[in-house]
Design a protein that fits this description.
Layout: H1 4-15, E1 23-28, H2 38-45, E2 50-56, E3 59-64, E4 69-73, E5 79-83, E6 93-99, E7 103-108, E8 114-118, H3 120-126, H4 141-149, H5 155-159, H6 170-180, H7 193-212, E9 253-257, E10 260-264
Antiparallel strand pairs: 1-6, 2-3, 3-4, 4-8, 5-7, 6-7, 9-10
Length: 272
Amino acid sequence: MPELPEMENYRIQLSKHILDLPITEVVVNREKSLNLDQEVFVNELTGRQVIFVERRAKHLLFHLDNGRRLILHLMLGGLLYLGSKEDRPSRSTQIEIVFGDNLVLYFIGLRLGYLHLLSAKEAEDSLAHLGPEPLGRKMNEEIFVKLMRKRRGSIKTVLVNQDVIAGIGNCYADEIAFAAGLRPTAKLQNMSEEELLGLYRAMREVLVEMTEGGGYMEMPLTSEDTLTGGANDLCRVYDREGEACPRCGDQIVKTEMNGRKVFYSPGCQHDR
């Protein structure tokens, strides 16, 4: 599932291409991905412009020129592609939005994901449960330590809880734990303040590095995009079962916790 770095990469790139262009056509191939009747959705969007693209946690919010919001959650398997009608990807699409004469934003793999049209207040309310952004202005060392002190359970369980901190999922929770030298299964209640501060610094370092690396999406956003997916090569432990740890050389192992895959290096990640 796309996490903060993937969605932030999309936000940055889309903001360079689609802002202030009129929406000239909307194609809906899967009405279940919407929150409105298909005809209403199409009529509401046609003629509008996206004036700003915002990311909140794992969501993108497209701010329209009439004050409404398109809110996107790709969920598992979701992708975006931006190109011409002639450049159409060889994948089934659930929604297509045409900007201007021939620039199409293709929504792919929205079997679990959605694209909802909401008022500004409805959009705000729908995301009100989310915790602070890990790289945002409302997060710092002190706030992070206080948040962790209020929680019991493993590093991974807490980091992927969107009500605690927004935007982190399976992949980057494991990468953050590795960067901190702790196992994803380590219990927060057993950790010292120094270890929690180290976890905070690891969280920032990993998310910044992976965002700058383009995230781990499997296909580029555009035909000229050479950034998206670059973080695939930056992961140290996630999906690296059986490989040698880049830090200590021990074999990376895979286990499960609460139905989630967990990857770590037993040689240099300790459990509390």
